[in-house]
Amino acid sequence: MPIDRDKHDKQAVLRQHAALNPRAHGVTHALFANNAFFDPDDVLQVKYEMLRLVNIDKRSISEAAKACGFSRPSFYQAMTAFESGGLAALLAHKSGPHGGHKLTPTVLQFICEARATDPDIRAERLAELVHQNFGVQVHPRSIERQLLRKKKRR
């Protein structure tokens, strides 16, 4: 019973660090089946082993990718990431914008000035004003969140 709990705990830590392999069931390489050191749930280990199979053991890309539960395009993505950023680059990163990229400092200053002029102005109206003055569509909730962040910092 403790083995299952330990595995669950490790999976929780891997998930927290974006290192949990969502395709662990697809890993068929013998190292991951016969050796407690190698964990198919650890995407960093699996991707590194996939790269090592090709570069050191001289296995084909298709064979290495299949044994590690990945596709050929995934191999090439991992190889490019590893070459440019080392081991850390093999971990998945959230795609898309991070943070309010439309809410530039200029737009935020405009919003704050509008709020100073009229403290009761609603986020919907602020979004309209931003669109009129900057040509940028901003969701009212994004404005509300940014104003809350600014309020918390004080």
**Annotation, overall tally of beta strands:** 0
The average pLDDT score comes to 90
Radius of gyration: 24 Å
Terminal residue distance: 49 Å
Beta fraction: under 5%
* Uncertain residue segments: none
What does this structure look like?
This protein has 154 residues and is mostly helical. Helix content is 60%, strand content 0%. It contains 8 helices and no strands. The chain is elongated, with a radius of gyration of 24 Å. The mean pLDDT is 90.
Secondary structure topology:
Layout: H1 2-16, H2 30-34, H3 43-55, H4 61-67, H5 72-85, H6 105-117, H7 123-134, H8 140-153
Characteristic terms for this protein:
mainly alpha; 0% strand; 154 residues
What would a concise description of this structure say?
The protein is mainly alpha-helical and 154 residues long. It is built from 8 helices and no strands.
